[in-house]
Design a protein that fits this description.
By secondary structure, the protein is of the alpha/beta class. The protein folds into two domains: 264 residues, 3-Layer(aba) Sandwich (UDP-N-acetylmuramoyl-L-alanine:D-glutamate ligase), CATH 3.40.1190; 136 residues, Mur ligase, C-terminal domain (Protein-Tyrosine Phosphatase, Chain A). The chain contains 14 helices and 15 strands. The strands form two sheets. A nine-stranded mixed β-sheet has the order 2-3-1-4-5-6-7-8-9, with helices on both faces. The chain has a six-stranded mixed β-sheet with strand order 10-11-15-12-13-14, with helices on both faces. Helix 6 links the parallel strand 4 and strand 5. Helix 8 packs antiparallel against helix 9. The longest helix has 23 residues. The chain is globular.
């Protein structure tokens, strides 16, 4: 019965969303990728705030499905029950019947793609004029759900490039080989960002600093002949910089003022579970990456942690889900990387945790510093016994592992 109700709700929301797009004709910016899309979306929203671009709305949280995407088009409300869904539908109808002068000029919409066909379903609701692709990587998340593995993910994400016309714009992370392949087939104008010399929006001179209890990242952005310095408090990873570069690429595509946008982006803060850094009790520096994990996200996060000063660095690493045949190799790689950065690791999970352990051993980590547990509760109890004042605690794993409970225990 619930499935039937969801089906009809999706159809109603999608229909209303299409009609609203026809009525108000906002610029549609689609954001997708196997890592970094939500943080990039938040950075883009911040970059566009102000009088220059008019009213801007973005997907809240990760509402990036057939149910969530039209929600952003219809309303800013967050659904909290049957009553709120009815209000959202009524609000959409009201906006359709009575012209609303403050309806957004720009909609930044996140397009999720857990399985083949997901992007196509969302494109039936609304097609973008600007598509932003953040990353695919060597072993993209959800590739286990695609019969063709990584190539299937590339095809699916590529739909957001293929749908664009020659008058549209495709923004990609130029450091990603798969995205460069996608861009070659697109009719649209292409803007690249990243760290490579050919990037139109390039990050240079990346440095992580720690001043007392605060961690911050400092870098410069090259856009043509312009060089813009940026410093972001509470950030530490190249992933955060890439989100800012994606946002400035969007401003560049819209022919906006990138210097003013960069000033706004200094207020960018990583979200809970997505790279937030804070000091917990006993002066423990906690790096909260608990929301989700993929191989490329793990790699960027661990490389970032390496640059932060701390007496000891302890990692709680959860499994990475839906990687298919690449799962074992990907987990061993993470373990090997972790061995070069952390003093001690605690691995959580029942399926692939042992592969992280194998990688850590291969990386040269001593057996006494490697711990493997099945549950978050066990990991929490172990860490509480081992951690000391002034240590760093890094927490990252797939959402299904539930490592946010570990972070919450150190916040309270």
């Amino acid at each position: 019965m619930k499935q039937v109700g969801r089906f009809f709700l999706e159809k109603i929301l999608a229909g209303l969303a299409r009609l609203l797009i026809l009525r108000y004709k906002p610029l549609i910016v689609a954001v997708s990728g196997s890592a970094g899309k939500t943080s990039a979306k938040e950075a883009m929203y911040l970059a566009l705030l102000g009088n220059e671009f008019g009213v801007v709305r973005r997907t809240k949280k990760n509402y990036n499905t057939e149910l969530g995407l039209p929600l952003t088009i219809l309303s800013e409300r967050e659904p909290r029950g049957v009553g709120s869904w009815m209000l959202i539908v009524l609000e959409g109808l009201a906006r359709l019947i009575f012209f609303h002068s403050k309806y957004p000029k720009i909609l930044i919409l996140e397009y999720g793609a857990d399985r083949p066909g997901d992007i196509e379903k969302l494109l039936r609701i609304v097609k973008p004029q600007i598509s932003v692709l953040t990353a695919i990587g060597a072993q993209p998340v959800h590739m286990g759900n695609y019969p063709d593995g990584r190539e299937g993910v590339i095809v699916e994400k590529g739909r957001l490039a293929n749908v664009l016309s020659k008058n549209d714009t495709l923004i990609i992370n130029g450091d990603d080989e798969a995205l460069r392949r996608i861009a070659k087939k697109s009719k649209a104008k292409v803007i690249t960002y990243g760290y490579g010399e050919g990037a139109a929006v390039r990050g240079i001179h990346y440095e992580v600093m720690r001043e007392g209890v605060e961690v911050m990242v400092s870098f410069k952005v090259e856009i043509g002949r312009r060089v813009i310095p940026i410093k972001i408090t509470g950030a530490y990873s190249e992933a955060h910089i890439l989100s800012v570069l994606a946002a400035l690429s969007l401003v560049e595509a819209l022919q906006g003022n990138t210097v003013e946008a960069a000033t706004r982006l200094e207020l960018f803060r990583p979200m809970t579970g997505r790279g937030r850094v804070f000091v917990s009790y006993q002066d423990i520096l906690l790096v909260d990456e608990a929301y989700n994990a993929s191989p490329i996200a793990m790699q960027l996060a661990i490389l970032g942690v390496e640059k932060i000063f701390a007496k000891r660095k302890i990692a709680v690493l959860g499994e990475m889900k839906e990687l298919g045949e690449a799962a074992a190799e990907a987990h061993r790689f993470v373990g090997q990387m972790a061995a070069n950065v952390f003093t001690m690791i605690v691995v959580v999970g029942a399926e692939m945790a042992s592969e992280i352990v194998k990688g850590a051993r291969k990386g040269g980590m001593a057996e006494k510093d490697i711990f493997e547990v099945k549950t978050v509760k066990e990991a929490k109890e172990l860490v509480i016994k081992k951690i000391k004042k002034g240590d760093m605690l890094f927490v990252k794993g797939s959402r299904s592992v539930g490592l946010e409970k570990m972070v919450e225990s150190f916040e309270n």
